[in-house]
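User: Can you predict the 3D structure for this chain?
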Amino acid sequence: MTAHRSGPRRECELAPAVQAHLEALGYRVWIDPDGTDYYDVVARKDRSIALVELKLADGKAVLGQAIRRRGWAEWVAVAVPTEALARRIAQRPVAERGRRVGVWWVDGSSVRVVRPALALVREGEVDPFGPLKEQMNERLDLVEAGHLPLGIAWNLLAASRSALPGRRSTRDWRIEEFSEAEAPSAEARASDATEGRTRPPARTGPPSSHN
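Assistant: Here is the predicted structure, written as structure tokens:
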């Protein structure tokens, strides 16, 4: 009888293949570097940062979870354990910025790219998250210099509230954001709240079609 090959039971089991894939691309890689499980995989090449979310199941919020981490990275990807799951996520109808999130299939010790990760902020678009990327680079500089031990919380979520006034939590970082000209008025937002609807917050850069 042929033994049934079971898949990974924990998200961290996907990490070695993802780490090897990124290192082959020239990145320095850290797995859950601050011990909070918020940043599953952090990678850096020069000053360019990438984040990879490890997922075992196709939660409805998987792309949203990835996009909420875009403040700290040039690109973001989701890595999952089966081809069928990867293709299901990649084929999910989303707006333009959501299609920039990479989708990877972890096939044993290899990573197969089902959808490549693209720059979340393209040339000509204003990046509202520059201060957060600098904060992430500062933390990684300290880690590389040996001044910040792994497993010590970086407090980047709390720092983001002061770095980005008006955006009180990452849940306010929607997949689609309006340009300032298109942003709903305070009266319209109040009306939406009364009706139980939620609109995306204002975007500081030009509109994108995005995730």
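The longest strand covers residues 48-54. Helices lie at 15-24, 62-67, 83-90, 130-145, 156-163, 186-195.
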